[in-house]
Amino acid sequence: MKVLRYVGLIVVVGAIVAVAACSQSTAQAKKPKVVIVATGGTIAGAAKSETEAGYKSGAVGVDILIEAVPSLKDLAVVTGEQVASIGSQDMNDEVWLKLGNKVNELLAKSDVNGVAITHGTDTMEETSYFLDLVVKSDKPVVLTGSMRPSTAMSADGPLNIYNAVAIAADPAARGRGVLVTVDDDIHSAHDIVKTHTTDVGTMSSGEAGLVGATLFGKNTWYRVPAQVHTSKSEMSITGVTALPRVDIIYAHANMSPDMISSAVTNGAKGIVIAGVGDGNMTAPAVEAMKAAVAKGVVVVRSSRTNGGIIRRNIEVSDDELGTVASMELNPAKARVLLQLALLKTQDPKKIQDYFNRY
Fold first, then answer.
1. CA–CA separation, 169 vs 152, rounded Å?
2. What is the DSSP letter of 147?
């Protein structure tokens, strides 16, 4: 009888363990799946001490970043992929194409609910906008970064990663285009700009305002960006192996025209003028711009002010010059859109239509 009772006890305990394991597996299966795609940046940086200002970007791999935030498991089933390990000052077209293709590949999987991307802050506004134009899904894509390396006292990276995963796992984030979260704010890729060299609160969406806010993974939503993006975008990198060269030229007092002619000579297919005020430049520079347009180079007028809208035919006649007005896009973002638009057309009128809508 004792043997029977002992065997029965084993059966009961085994059944309880099996049920618990099954429940745990079911609970895990119900959680959304988020893939963290790492590119490097300060968020993966390492310094010699926790108070060292200098550091090496991209020194920490994605697996270590995930391990450093164990509470991610409460939000989603999280896995990681390493696409690059660079400081974002070294971000380039090759990595953009690789990243864009990887994100599209991941989002095409039925079991992936969203993607979070770790990235340096220096060029985050450009990479996020690039993805906003080429990602072909309404699923959430969320970039995050940090202003302090992973080894710093009060590092801001871990909570930013936690919030990025929470946003990527949130069904309410769908259809809002590519997002960026830092410092508890949620920005649209279309609007975000970096405004300070070292301040943790460096990111701003300017006049457009935030898309939402997040507090320890709890999200509040304010708006849906009005511009064309992601699944509705006509831009595509399918089969693309290189992007056209587009240069940004910074306007200033006594601006020399040879900066424009030099860009043309060296192979630029497009030029963005970071103009003074409302997209202006010196009279000699305007003549050089006209010569560039005559050679088939598409020229976009933007502004170095990082605010306001560059509309057509205000300070100069875009109709007469054959130039494109950048509308809401700053020079860095205007360059991204122009690179992708040039894959489709060299017609300034058609490209202006893209700038009006994107």
1. 28
2. S
* Distance in angstroms (rounded) separating the CA atoms of residues 322 and 296: 10
According to the model, what pLDDT value does residue 15 have?
Answer: 43
Q: Considering the candidates 26, 39, 42, 151, report the single residue annotated as catalytic.
A: 42
Q: What is the pLDDT of residue 28?
A: 54
Nearest-angstrom CA–CA distance, 81 and 96 = 15
Going by the DSSP 8-state scheme, the letter that residue 248 receives in this structure is E
Q: What is the CA radius of gyration of the chain?
A: 24
- CB-CB contact of 248 with 274 (8 Å): yes
Question: Which contiguous run of DSSP H or E holds residue 54?
Answer: none
Which tens digit of pLDDT belongs to each residue from 205-221?
999 999 999 999 999 99
By CB neighbour count within 10 A (0-12 exposed, 13-18 middle, 19+ buried), where does 166 fall? buried
Axis-axis angle for helices 331-341, 124-134 (nearest 10)? 30
Fold of 32-232: Rossmann fold (3.40.50)
Q: Do domains 32-232 and 246-357 have the same CATH topology?
A: yes
CATH 3.40.50.40 for domain 246-357, yes or no, is yes
Name the residue type at position 191.
D
**Domains in the chain: boundaries:** 32-232, 246-357
Q: Are 142 and 114 in contact (CB under 8 A)?
A: yes
Query: Is residue 59 pLDDT above 90, yes or no?
Result: no
> Residues 104, 239: contact at Cβ < 8 Å?
no
Any catalytic annotation for residue 151?
Answer: no
**219 token code pair:** 């999200």
Tokens representing 161? Answer: 């990663």
In sequence order, the 6+-apart residues with CB closer than 8 A to the CB of 18 are none
Taking only the tens place, the pLDDT of each residue in 143-186 is 999 999 888 888 999 999 999 999 999 999 999 999 999 999 99
DSSP assigned state of 180 = E
